[in-house]
């Protein structure tokens, strides 16, 4: 087994409001002159190290886990996953 | 499944025909959506209205009764209190964090749109058993949602209750209440009275969230798939805080003639109810509504339930002043129309009239007279055989004190800011009700919201009367005279005659005790369809009652904790064999059945008045409603905070043939436990004797570290240290907290 | 003495601070909207508690960029007293007027309860008239209040007498059990090198009247009274 890094980004669904993202853009970035920012969406980021036979297995393991443990709520959130090989 | 003009509507064939007849033509698609949402159970109360008419709504202090977003009562000196309870059950069941948060958002808007500053929040939560991971998840995130939202908007969450029962496993209940404070002259109603007044929509932008009849909407939407849409709203407490401040500042100008928040039914509901109540009409131009998404069609804009929006009706000369305030808080707003004399909701888009429906047709939909039927299970449950008395009653006491329903809820209320506002005199855990002062005056209000579904399940009439009785008792023990109440009733499917029978019995119980105590109902909320689609399991009926009382002198405010050893303990009221729905039967014996406690209306009211009189003498050092968990648990609760104990003899405080377990754990109504100094003992007893209220000195407060109960020459003795551990650590332990600070 | 209480969007304890200063202590205190604040008009400034900008991104970070903070910085530099309570403390930290970081409580939840604070120094205007080692009963109510800094900087805070309040038990002893949020060294409040800028997580404005205290104490009031005496020439 090898160690893989699976990075999970959890965000609100694309058409949901993101009050935090809007506040950061409007009240921090735009007000300090960074007015070329057009959108900010916030979310949660999890970097998970997992042992697996191969990358596909590592990814599926994490997908099963985040569903089982309600690490995201499919009613409100979407997730995306990036697989990396662990260097350390 | 029924359709109007190709739009799927959640109405019966008769309702569709009625709508066509009232309109005099086939509604177009926009109108169909507007009628559908306004005639829904949620907006129309069509199943419950015939029953709710029984409730007494009038009293000398009532300024605004049921029918507006919240009720208003007078508390002297030109001050008024505004309050209301609502559910957010369905959204919380699928996304507990945002569901609960937006529940708080909604109830706060209801108070705010009356022109009052929200000053206190309440929550009454029901989940499945804490052993279930699903229930734990719901519990944790509902509390977090309330905490994050309520704390952020600066409104203290000061009271409520939490119970766990298997019937809520798939249908949790999230009842949220709010109290507001205002000067009488600042109260604004949700009415559009003056032709020519301007409509300003302020706050959040309008998106496609929460649109009723998603089936239709999704057919029209091209760029967004159903999977991309959240089924619940996202809370935005930061914007809400700005809306609160801006709204209160706007109301102070005197230019706001009507105000309503946008909740269920969105713009359709706000526009039709305000013009319906004012006998006017409105003209709305959808081109001016600020949208969050592109290509929204009139159907969507009229039905959107996007959060954090308020509809202001403003005198034309006041528009610039009002919008200057909105600009200060950087809130978005737009003038979307005006009040006219048409008695219609007229909706325009691109200069074209896209909907025209009589306001009152939307705001006063036809009610239904659904049948009721007494369920057969009621008699079966009542006839349950009593279990044998356990040998070791001390172990029963430990078990009950460590039951999630009776254990301390500090894990919950420590997560709520219960002090912001500098008003909270009595904080959660200190007494049966929260007490909030009116700044700058020698007066305060006490408030508590309660429900006992396990009693209601067995006997909905006494469950209803009991919820009101309990809530009034809790308010009275602090020294407050109960003034008025609101309810929030969660039941199953009203199309089931047995569910509706329970509903009607509940209302009858509430009505009878309210009439007896002469305390009006000034508002309410009904939530039906709380049942599992898969297993068809119905929740235990949950009538929540929030009562507000007035304390006219801060000096006699009383808490529930024992203050010092040597104080005498008085038992007020008598205990009967009323074990049904008790925590002892449900949790210890796992029995769903038996006879639930009966509210003796005359005795209940007379006892309350006498206790209040006693507390107001200032001679009572601690006062506590004796109810859930019976005498044993109620006494123990009084000792927890200050680590004190009690030695009591319980002969003569109940029916003579009671067993020891029944006497300790029965949840009979009309009972209180008081403490007083030895020097006041005869004075206090005399107050009860004069009023023919049963009272008995049962023992003394000690620092011996043991709770000792004696009855018919038997003794039960429990270690206070072990009780405190169970009381404070049970919920944190379930929630995975190892180290717990009280 | 003219005291400003700055209102940021999302502040929510400003009325409480105003009530205590104006009605309880009869001081000339004013609520000032953050965009309208000018330092010249005031002798002291309070940054109140709450959730400025919804605590989005990090508590206090967005408010730290408000134009009001430029004037607060001016006042700090002039040696005028500056007090940050709870969110105000977080704003002072994010503005770099005070050193360190305030992270999420180690219990991961919001915590509202009364704590015991030990006064560590009498050299600030807000503690000048409270005896060192006094124990004050004051409530906390926050989610991001765990004070963190490098060991080296903490040592400097000690060396420079910049630690103002610590969480202790009823007997005045720093223990793990009396630390409600996991702050390093039980730190509840600190000041700048000069001592005129003070930030603390607990809410003295909620503990300034006996009727609001479960212990019938008025310990929060001592902090404001200290400021008043300091101003009335008791420096």
Which features characterize this protein?
heterotrimer, B: 742 residues, alpha+beta, Phosphoribosyl-aminoimidazole Synthetase, Chain A, domain 2, seven-stranded mixed sheet, C: 235 residues, Rossmann fold, two-stranded antiparallel ribbon, 25% strand, globular
Going across the biggest sheet of chain A, name each strand in turn: 2-1-3
Classify the secondary structure makeup of chain A into a structural class. alpha+beta
CATH topology of chain A: Mth169, Chain: A
Q: Please give the radius of gyration of chain C in angstroms.
A: 16 Å
Mind explaining what this structure looks like?
The complex is a heterotrimer of chains A (88), B (742) and C (235). Chain A has a single domain, classed as Phosphoribosylformylglycinamidine synthase subunit PurS (Mth169, Chain: A), CATH 3.30.1280.10. With 88 residues, chain A is of the alpha+beta class. Chain A is built from 2 helices and 3 strands; from the N terminus they run βαβαβ. In chain A, strands 2-1-3 form a 3-stranded antiparallel β-sheet, with helices on one face. Chain B has 25 helices and 28 strands. Helices cover 35% and strands 24% of the residues of chain B. By secondary structure, chain B is of the alpha+beta class. In chain B, α6 packs parallel to α9 (237-252). Chain C is α/β, with parallel strands linked by helices and 235 residues long. In chain C, β10 and β11 form a beta hairpin. Chain C is globular, with a radius of gyration of 16 Å. Classes of the chains: A alpha+beta (88), B alpha+beta (742), C alpha/beta (235). Chains in contact: A-B, A-C, B-C. At the B-C interface, α7 and α9 of B face α1 and β6 of C.
